Amino acid sequence: MKNISNVTEFILLGLTHNEEMQKICFVLFLIFYLIIVLGNLLIVVTIIFSSRLNSPMYFFLSYLSFIDICYSSVTAPKMIADFLVEKKTISFIGCIAQLFGVHFFGCTEIFILTVMAYDRYIAICKPLHYTTIMTKRICGQMVAASWVGGFMHSMVQTLVTTQLPFCGPNEIDHYFCDVHPLLQLACTDTYVVGIIVVANSGMIALSCFLILVVSYIVILVSLKSHSSEGRRKALSTCASHVTVVILFFGPCTFTYIRPSSNFSEDKTVAIFYTVITPMLNPLIYTLRNEEVKNAMRKLWDRKLISSGKTRM
After folding, report:
1. Separation CA 153–CA 198 (nearest Å)
2. Do residues 172 and 179 make contact, with C-beta atoms less than 8 angstroms apart?
3. How many Cα atoms occupy the beta-carbon half-sphere of 35 within 13 Å?
4. pLDDT tens-digit map of 1-12
5. What is the mean pLDDT of residues 192-209?
6. Rounded to an integer, what distance in angstroms lies between the CA atom of residue 260 and that of residue 220?
7. Domains in the chain: boundaries
8. Residues in Cβ contact with 262 at an 8 Å cutoff, skipping those fewer than 6 apart
9. Are the C-beta atoms of residues 277 and 71 closer than 8 Å to each other?
10. 171-172 and 89-91: which strand pairing?
11. 159, 168, 139, 173: which is closest to 61 by C-alpha?
12. What is the C-alpha to C-alpha distance for residues 102 and 153, in angstroms, rounded to an integer?
């Protein structure tokens, strides 16, 4: 399809047109974004500098937290800045870059969450083989495959979108550039492209979600043979992961499993997987995990001791 676009920029309509609400949203989402960056950065630093958090579970968790920072940074800073301006514009190149970033980090996070479920399955259902299966090399390969998978998915979404002609209008009823709002602005029939988008995005989200559901059903069944203490610890760890999966996969599946539409609820739903879930992840994984909390306390005590020696 020959690209005959004459649109050089898009106008983002944002979350609300009410000026008072925009001021409130600016403060609220700025706080949310700071929590996302600081909370997830704290988890990454804690896992890197703690000798006790060296299991594959925390290796994957550190990458999940890093991806959450990157994922939110693609959309949140632009959204926050737009609350202070009347005309919310983004260049064509900037829009495509944002589209690529959202799908790259979002899809990578989906694969990392799936890998984390596999890790828990091996740890609980095959504990005697855990160390031989989940080696550092295998874990590294899984993370690398997640990044490659996210990149390939994002490239498909970006390429099919950039091949579309955009002749105007150029108003996007969203707070960031996503594939569905852009399909609605294309001045050509986007039925085939829409099918590709649903097959690419929706099926990845749905298939990974089904894999996660099956893996946790198997885990729950296998827990019957565990001791009460082992069962409690396993359920605590799995509950955190299941909570994150529901918060992230639910809105994602709702958005991408269906064809392009002009649902105004889409941008409200998108808040959950671009802002709310990355913000809650550090709280979910730390409040229910004594090992992470203890590691954070030790790092804090070590910092206080080192700062006290420096002053002396």
Report:
1. 12
2. no
3. 15
4. 444 567 889 999
5. 84
6. 37
7. 9-307
8. 173, 184
9. no
10. unpaired
11. 139
12. 11
Which tokens sit at 118?
Answer: 């596999």
Q: Which band of pLDDT confidence, cut at 50, 70 and 90, is reported for residue 80?
A: very high
- What values do phi and psi take at 90, rounded to 5? -145, 135
DSSP letter string, 42-90: HHHHHHHH-SS--SHHHHHHHHHHHHHHHHHHHHHHHHHHHTT-SS-EE
Token pair 């992840």 in the structure block, residue: 281
C-alpha span between 160 and 209 (Å, rounded): 25
pLDDT in tens, 202-231: 788 888 888 888 888 888 888 777 777 777
CA distance 84 to 104: 28
Give the separation between CA 121 and CA 220, rounded to whole angstroms: 10
Q: Which residues lie closer than 8 Å to 94 by C-beta, 6 or more apart?
A: 177
Furthest-apart CA atoms within the chain: distance in Å: 72
Rounded to an integer, what is the distance from CA 79 to the centroid of its chain? 17
CA 216/CA 265 separation, integer angstroms: 30
| Cis peptide upstream of residue 169 (ω within 30 degrees of 0) | yes
Task: Name which CATH class applies to 9-307.
Answer: mainly alpha
- As beta bridge partners, residue 9 has 91
